Amino acid sequence: GRIVEWKRVHLAIEAVKMLVDNGFNEAVLNIIGPVSSENYFLKLKKMVVDLSLEKNVFFLGHKEHSELPPYFQGADLFTLPSDKETFGMVMIEAMACGTPVAGINCPGGPADVITHLENGLLSSPEDYSKTILDFFKNSQRALDIAKNARVKVVNEYSIEATYKVLHS
């Protein structure tokens, strides 16, 4: 998504800091999207430096839609820290690749798709970092959530499931 204040990318960076501070030194956050707010982007870059996360956080810029699946497939978690998200296809695309989503529990957004600790994570902005840390502390649960994320999308959002809804 675009790098703009309301996407709250800083919450994902804070989560990486908490991971690193708790022994997950190899944690990596790839931020993909065009810069829509140069001022916010500069604040984020400064935040990365101030938190000594230069080896953990990377700004990859804009990627074409066709380039995204390998990033989803290679990720352990997709962060969606905005509390102003509506139903987002990017969330479904990540889950379809077996990558659970860490979203903010807000009306009309991730909570309409995600069941917390079943097929993804839902959190308040204040607890976002801790929710992500807890996810990574339990590797078996993380694997189960990832598997359930894909199952949710296949069962409810695949082309076949959409056809059944439209056909009935």
Give a description of the structure.
- The structure is a single chain.
- With 168 residues, this protein is mainly alpha-helical.
- It contains 7 helices and 5 strands; from the N terminus they run H-E-H-E-H-E-H-E-E-H-H-H.
- Strands 3-4-5 form a 3-stranded parallel β-sheet. Strands 1-2 form a two-stranded parallel sheet.
- Strand 1, helix 2 and strand 2 form a beta-alpha-beta unit.
- Helix 1 packs across helix 5, helix 4 packs across helix 6 and helix 6 runs parallel beside helix 7.
- The longest helix is centred in the C-terminal third of the chain and has 19 residues.
- The protein is globular, with a radius of gyration of 16 Å.
- The termini are far apart.
What is the topology, as strand order, of the major beta sheet?
3-4-5
Low-confidence stretches: none
Structural Rg: 16 Å
Outline type: globular
Helix content: 40-55%
**Tally the helices: what do you get?**
7
- Mean pLDDT over all positions: 93
**Strand and helix order:** HEHEHEHEEHHH
State the end-to-end CA separation. 34 Å
Q: Helices and strands: which structural class? A: mainly alpha
Tell me the β content.
5-15%
Largest sheet: 3 strands, parallel
- Quantity of strands, as a count: 5
